[in-house]
C-alpha cells in the first residue's frame, strides 16, 4: 500500500534531492526519538512526501544539518532538524502502518502472516503512543479500515468504492496540514485523490499475486476475470483510472498555498507519480516478454 509517492530523480536538481533526502532522514529520526527504533523500519517515500507537504504548508523552522544515522554511520548526510514540523507526520505514519500490518496479518499467505504478526507486536506500542496524541485520527482510521475489510469480504467489484476508505484516510490526514478552512478543504481533496492513486497503483502492482491466490483485487473482479488474467485489458482500466486521478490531483494541487519546497513537490506531483505507475507497467511488460 505504500511506496508509490516518490520524485522523478532525473529531473531533480542535486540541491533539491538533498533537501528531499534531508526530510526523509529527519522524519526517520523523529520516528526513532518519539516512537522507538522499530518505527524507523516502517518509513516509506509516501510519508516523506507527507512530511514535505506538512513543512511546505506552514512556517515552522526547517534547518538542514549534516548528521550520522544508523543507515550511514560513517558518513554524515543532510538531515532536517525540525521535530515540530514532522511530529504530526510521524504520528500519522505510525497509525497508518499499524493498520496496514494488521490488515496484512488478516489477509496474507502463511509466511507473510507470520511476518505481519511479528511486526504487529513490534509496532503496537508505537501505535498506542501516536493514537494517544491524535485519538480522533486513530479512531477515524480504524473506522475506515473496518469499512475496507467489509468491502473486501463482499468482493466489491467497483474500484471507486473499494478505494474509498484509503482515499478518505489520506484526505483526513492531509486536511490537518493547515488551519485555514479553505486550504483544509483543498488539502482534503488532494489527499483523497492521492489515496486513490496509491490504492489503484497497489492493486495493479499485486495483480498476478492476487490472481494466483484468488485474493481480493477490484481490478480483477471488475473485469469479471475468473479463469484467465487478461493483463492488457486490466492494465488499460487501471491506466485510465490513474490518468483521471492524477489530472484531478493536479487541479487540487495548484490551489494549495505552497510556501516552500515547491520545485520538489512539483516534481513529485507532475512527474514522479506518473513515472512510478508507468514503471509498474514496464516491469509487467518486460516480465511477459521473458
Describe this structure as you would to a colleague:
The chain is mainly α and 290 residues long. The protein has one domain (9-289): Orthogonal Bundle (Farnesyl Diphosphate Synthase). Helices cover 71% and strands 3% of the residues. The chain contains 13 helices and two strands. The chain has helices spanning 14-35, 37-40, 45-56, 83-106, 110-133, 135-153, 159-162, 164-175, 181-205, 207-212, 218-221, 231-253, 262-289, and strands at 63-67, 77-81. It has a two-stranded antiparallel ribbon. Helix 6 (135-153) packs antiparallel against helix 8 (164-175) and helix 12 (231-253) packs antiparallel against helix 13 (262-289). The radius of gyration is 19 Å and the shape is globular.
Choose one word for the global shape: globular
Order of helices and strands: HHHEEHHHHHHHHHH
The number of domains is 1
CATH architecture: Orthogonal Bundle
Low-pLDDT runs: none
Largest sheet descriptor: 2 strands, antiparallel
* Corresponding CATH superfamily: Farnesyl Diphosphate Synthase
What is the third-level CATH name, the topology?
Farnesyl Diphosphate Synthase
Helix content: over 70%
Continuous helix count? 13
Q: Roughly how many Å is the radius of gyration?
A: 19 Å
CATH class: Mainly Alpha
Average the pLDDT over all residues and give the rounded result.
Answer: 86
Query: Order of strands across the widest beta sheet?
Result: 1-2
Number of strands: 2
End-to-end distance: 27 Å
Quote the beta fraction.
Answer: under 5%
Alpha-beta content class: mainly alpha
Amino acid at each position: 500500500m505504500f511506496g508509490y509517492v516518490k520524485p522523478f530523480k532525473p529531473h531533480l536538481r542535486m540541491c533539491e534531492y538533498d533537501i528531499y533526502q534531508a526530510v526523509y532522514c529527519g522524519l526517520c529520526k523523529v520516528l526513532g526519538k518519539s516512537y522507538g527504533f522499530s518505527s524507523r523500519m516502517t518509513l516509506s517515500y509516501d510519508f516523506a512526501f507527507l512530511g514535505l507537504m506538512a513543512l511546505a504548508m506552514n512556517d515552522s523552522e526547517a534547518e538542514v544539518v549534516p548528521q550520522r544515522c544508523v543507515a550511514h554511520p560513517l558518513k554524515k548526510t543532510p538531515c532536517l532538524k525540525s521535530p515540530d514540523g514532522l511530529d504530526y507526520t510521524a504520528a500519522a505514519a505510525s497509525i497508518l502502518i499499524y493498520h496496514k500490518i494488521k490488515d496484512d496479518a488478516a489477509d496474507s499467505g502463511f509466511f507473510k502472516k507470520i511476518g505481519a504478526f511479528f511486526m504487529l507486536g513490534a509496532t503496537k506500542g508505537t501505535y498506542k503512543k501516536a493514537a494517544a496524541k491524535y485519538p480522533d485520527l486513530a479512531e477515524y482510521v480504524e473506522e475506515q479500515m473496518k469499512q475496507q475489510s467489509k468491502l473486501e469480504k463482499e468482493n466489491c467489484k467497483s474500484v471507486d468504492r473499494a478505494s474509498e476508505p484509503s482515499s478518505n484516510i489520506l484526505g483526513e490526514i492531509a486536511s490537518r496540514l493547515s488551519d485555514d478552512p479553505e486550504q483544509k478543504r483543498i488539502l482534503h481533496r488532494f489527499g483523497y485523490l492521492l489515496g486513490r492513486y496509491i490504492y489503484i497503483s497497489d492493486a495493479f502492482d499485486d495483480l498476478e499475486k492476487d490472481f494466483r491466490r484468488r485474493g481480493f483485487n477490484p481490478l480483477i473482479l471488475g473485469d469479471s476475470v475468473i479463469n484467465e488474467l487478461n493483463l492488457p485489458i486490466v492494465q488499460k482500466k487501471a491506466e485510465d483510472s490513474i490518468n483521471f486521478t492524477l489530472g484531478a490531483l493536479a487541479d487540487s494541487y495548484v490551489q494549495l498555498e505552497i510556501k516552500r519546497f515547491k520545485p520538489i513537490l512539483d516534481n513529485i506531483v507532475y512527474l514522479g507519480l506518473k513515472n512510478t505507475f508507468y514503471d509498474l507497467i514496464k516491469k509487467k511488460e518486460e516480465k511477459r516478454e521473458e
